[in-house]
């Protein structure tokens, strides 16, 4: 059983359950009316961007708490930007990555090498590691990499040989190309706007093609997949798919929307898009 569920959405907000904690946060896509207005009063706390960035009722929340989603234990905490250390819209991708790694294990002598770029708090890294992948987890934020290490320990994976790297994606990939390091599977979630380790500016529109070209150069001779996700408005499933096809060549390509989901009566809430490139199918 997952400790996460979308409970309702509407009027530009979403109501989500993270274990014992119910939170209301902004969500521009929720342009409809809430379906269960009576539920919203039971929220433990809420966050809004009405007059700056504000939590209401943050004192009612524990400083950190732990939930289990798709078999991965994750430590959560409220950040000043309204993030919690998890993007639940990526949960189906964790499952897909886990399945692909497990399937590949049956046909290979060595563990598939998985590279997670812009890897945040590590959910996808840990799902891949649980499936037996040799993982490399990279993020420019030292704090986020520490958070991912904490999550690895919570899952008994602190001795699993995961490479945790604090670095800028472009600089790291260029060095990996020079060193001749190769990976069988890559996940990348480029931010609309982000900063590398030394403040290097990353803008998806400007940088994503170069990043994908570098990803192409670090792919092994028998790659499994490259998954590209985005939360940037305008980066639709087809646009992500076209980017993968143009950078990596024709292969089996699929794409779709990332969704926040709850029970059968709860409206699915689109929260970004994904595309997947699979080799040799
Ligand atoms: C949208 S979040 C990724 C969310 C994550 N993939 C997930 O689903 O949980 C963006 C992450 O990219 C990192 N980041 C931003 N610019 C970067 C850069 N130039 N190099 C490496 N990481 C960067 C940020 O520190 C942040 O953790």
Mean pLDDT: 96
The number of helical segments is 6
Total count of strands? 16
Strand percentage, roughly? Answer: 25-35%
CATH class membership of the largest domain: Alpha Beta
CATH architectural label of the largest domain:
3-Layer(aba) Sandwich
The major beta sheet can be summarized as: 7 strands, mixed
As for the number of domains, it is: 2
Inertia-based shape? globular
Unreliable parts: none
Structural class: alpha/beta
Intertermini distance: 33 Å
CATH topology of the largest domain: the name is Rossmann fold
- Output the helix-strand order: EEEEEEEHEHEHEHEEEHEHEE
Rg estimate, integer Å: 19 Å
What binds here, in terms of ligands, is: S-adenosylmethionine
The CATH H-level homologous superfamily of the largest domain: Vaccinia Virus protein VP39
Descriptive account of the structure:
It is a single chain. This protein is 27% helix and 31% strand. With 281 residues, it is α/β, with parallel strands linked by helices. It has two domains: 4-76, Golgi alpha-mannosidase II (Immunoglobulin-like), CATH 2.60.40; 88-278, Rossmann fold, CATH 3.40.50.150. The strands form four sheets. Strands 10-9-8-11-14-16-15 form a seven-stranded mixed beta sheet, sandwiched between helices. A hairpin with a 2-residue loop joins strand 6 (65-69) and strand 7. The longest helix has 17 residues, at 91-107. It is globular. The model has no long low-confidence stretch (mean pLDDT 96). Residues 87, 90, 118-121, 123, 139-141, 144, 168-169, 189, 191, 194-196, 200, 202, 231 line the site of S-adenosylmethionine. S-adenosylmethionine is lined by residues 87, 90, 118-121, 123, 139-141, 144, 168-169, 189, 191, 194-196, 200, 202, 231.
């Amino acid at each position: 059983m997952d400790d996460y569920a979308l409970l309702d959405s509407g009027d530009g907000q979403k109501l989500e359950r993270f274990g014992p904690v119910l939170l209301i946060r902004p969500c521009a896509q929720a342009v409809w009316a809430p379906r269960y207005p009576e539920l919203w009063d039971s929220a433990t706390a809420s966050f809004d961007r009405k007059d700056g960035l504000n939590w209401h009722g943050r004192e009612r929340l524990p400083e950190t708490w732990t939930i289990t989603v798709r078999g991965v234990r994750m430590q959560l905490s409220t950040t000043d930007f309204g993030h919690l250390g998890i993007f639940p819209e990526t949960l189906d991708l964790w499952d897909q990555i886990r399945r692909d790694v497990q399937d590949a294990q049956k046909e290979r002598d060595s563990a598939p090498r998985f590279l997670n770029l812009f890897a945040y708090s590590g959910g996808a890294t840990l799902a891949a590691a649980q499936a037996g992948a040799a993982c490399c987890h990279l993020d420019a934020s030292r704090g986020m990499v520490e958070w991912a290490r904490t999550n690895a320990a919570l899952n008994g994976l602190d001795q699993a040989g995961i490479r945790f790297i604090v670095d800028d994606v472009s600089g790291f990939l260029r060095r990996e190309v020079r060193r001749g390091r190769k990976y069988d599977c890559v996940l990348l979630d480029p931010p609309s706007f982000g900063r590398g380790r030394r403040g290097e500016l990353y803008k998806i529109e400007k940088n994503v093609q170069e990043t994908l070209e570098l990803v192409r150069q670090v792919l092994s001779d028998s790659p499994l997949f490259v998954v590209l996700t985005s939360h940037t408005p305008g980066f639709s499933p087809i646009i992500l798919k076209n980017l993968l096809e143009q950078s990596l060549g024709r292969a089996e390509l699929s794409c779709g929307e990332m969704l926040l989901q709850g029970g059968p009566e709860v409206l699915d809430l689109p929260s970004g898009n994904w595309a997947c490139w699979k080799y040799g199918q």
